[in-house]
Amino acid sequence: MRIVSGAAHGKTLLAPKGMNTRPTTERVREAIFSALAPYIEGAKVLDAFAGSGALGLEALSRGAAAAVFIEKDRRALDVLRKNIFACGFNQPAQVLAGDTNHVMQTLSGFDIVLLDPPYNRGLITKIEPQLLSMGFLNEGALVMLETSSKEPELFTDGRWQLYKSRVYGDTAIYYYGIG
């Protein structure tokens, strides 16, 4: 697994061992960041359920000003920190260990949120209220949700506007904003 484009192009990323993480493939990451390209430069990004950090690191590589990574798995946290160091993004990257729903309650001011939760566990429903809380998202913010194409977990609040969706095999990608 490698960074696809930008300042850290070609840097190899480690992946946590075991089945607790499912890193986004390079092909899907390329598609995600092609769609997000006009919004990345200078953005404050949240990579929730970060795992290896591939999504947030790709954003930093392509010009995001800062990225916050949330992960609770200890093995994944170790790999995430090594990947950040390997890409040279120690300064603009912040790693927060813990349950995504709880950690998100202490954060605000994001331009882009990258969500790739474990599939089919109902985690999107748990964090949706926090995403919609006052100040969490900046005006014009985008939320990218990666989920299973077989059992997609979608946002349910009527304030969301679905801008775009794509399916790549077993993976579905959704891009949302506040309507």
From TrEMBL:
EC number, as in UniProt: 2.1.1.171
Enzyme class: transferase
Pfam families given in the database record: Cons_hypoth95
SUPFAM superfamilies: S-adenosyl-L-methionine-dependent methyltransferases (SSF53335)
Entry superkingdom: Bacteria
UniProt keyword list: Methyltransferase, Transferase
InterPro entries attached to this UniProt entry: DNA_methylase_N6_adenine_CS, RNA_MeTrfase_RsmD, SAM-dependent_MTases_sf
GO molecular function, one term: nucleic acid binding
Record bears the keyword Ligase: no
Classification via NCBIfam families: 16S rRNA (guanine(966)-N(2))-methyltransferase RsmD
PANTHER family attached to this UniProt entry: METHYLTRANSFERASE (PTHR43542:SF1)
UniProt name for this protein: 16S rRNA (Guanine(966)-N(2))-methyltransferase RsmD
Naturally occurring in which organism (per UniProt): Candidatus Avidehalobacter gallistercoris
